[in-house]
Design a protein that fits this description.
single chain; elongated; 2 domains; eight-stranded antiparallel beta sheet; two-stranded antiparallel sheet; alpha+beta; about 25% helix
Length: about 260
C-alpha cells in the first residue's frame, strides 16, 4: 500500500507540473498574440488618424481692429488677427477683394514680431498667390512711412492672370513690418501711385499699450501727402478728424 501511495504522489506531482507548463505556454502564446495584433493595428492605421501638429499661427476669434484702411475703389476689408502660438507675435491683416473677383484686390499685413523666428520675406497674403516665374525687379516708392520696397509679379490664382505689386517696409524700433500686395483686374501695369496712396491711408486706431507704435504712426501722419487729388482712380483723401489733427489744429473760441 505504501508503494501505491508513493506512486500516486509521484503521478500527482507530474500532473501538476505538466499543467503548470501548459498554463505558462498558453500565457506566452496569448502575450505574443496581443503584441502581433497591436503591431498590425498600428501598421494599418491610416495616416490621417495621426495627431496633427499644432498650428504655428492661431486665428483670433472676433478680432478687434487696431488699424484702419479705406480703399473705396475696392470696398470694405475683411479684418483678421493671428497670434504666434509660442512667440507671441501678432499679425493684423486687412484683405480687400471685389465681388466675384472681377476687380482689383489688395491685402495689407501689419506684423509685430514676438520672440518667434521671423520669416525672411514677411509678405502679407503672398502665400495665397502663385507668382510668375522670373526674378522681380525691386524698386521703392515714397510714402508717409518712408521708402517702401516694391516688386512686380503676376498672380495666376484666378481664371485670368492679373498684374500685381507687392510691397514691404520694416522698422527696427519698434519692431514692425508693413507688407502686402495690390492687384489689378487684368494685366495692365499697376499704378505705383495707387499703392503709395493706399499706404498713406493706413492709420492706427488702437496702439494696444505700445507707445512706440503710436509714435511711429503719429510721426508718419505728419508726412502724409493726402494724395489722389489728381487721380481719376484714387479719390482725394479727406482731412483727418482724429486726435492727431486735433492736437495740431485746436479749435479756437469764436471759430466755426
Amino acid at each position: 500500500m505504501a508503494q501505491v501511495g508513493s506512486l500516486l504522489r509521484v503521478f500527482a506531482g507530474e500532473v501538476h507540473a505538466t499543467l503548470a507548463r501548459l498554463f505558462a505556454y498558453f500565457c506566452a502564446l496569448g502575450l505574443i498574440g496581443l503584441v502581433v495584433v497591436d503591431f498590425v493595428a498600428r501598421q494599418s492605421r491610416p495616416a490621417s488618424a495621426a495627431v496633427a501638429p499644432a498650428p504655428e499661427w492661431i486665428d483670433v476669434g472676433r478680432p478687434f481692429p487696431a488699424f484702419a484702411l479705406v480703399l473705396p475703389e475696392i470696398g470694405e476689408p475683411r479684418y483678421a488677427i493671428q497670434r504666434h502660438a509660442t512667440g507671441g507675435g501678432r499679425k493684423d491683416m486687412l484683405t480687400f477683394d471685389a465681388p466675384e473677383r472681377t476687380g482689383p484686390a489688395a491685402a495689407v499685413e501689419i506684423y509685430r514680431p514676438g520672440t518667434e523666428v521671423r520669416d525672411a520675406d514677411g509678405e502679407a497674403g503672398v502665400p495665397e498667390l502663385r507668382l510668375s516665374v522670373g526674378a522681380p525687379r525691386p524698386a521703392t516708392i515714397a510714402t508717409k512711412f518712408g521708402p517702401v520696397a516694391i516688386a512686380e509679379f503676376i498672380d495666376h490664382t484666378i481664371n485670368a492672370p492679373r498684374q500685381c505689386l507687392r510691397f514691404m517696409r520694416s522698422f527696427d524700433d519698434p519692431r514692425l513690418v508693413i507688407s502686402g500686395w495690390y492687384c489689378n483686374a487684368g494685366l495692365e501695369i499697376v499704378d505705383r501711385g495707387i499703392v503709395a496712396c493706399a499706404l498713406d491711408r493706413l492709420t492706427l486706431m488702437v496702439a494696444g499699450g505700445e507707445p512706440k507704435v503710436a509714435a511711429l504712426f503719429a510721426h508718419a501722419e505728419l508726412k502724409r501727402s493726402f494724395c489722389g487729388t489728381r487721380s481719376v482712380i484714387v479719390a482725394a483723401i479727406p482731412k483727418r478728424a482724429d486726435w492727431i489733427e486735433t492736437a495740431h489744429d485746436p479749435r479756437l473760441r469764436g471759430r466755426d
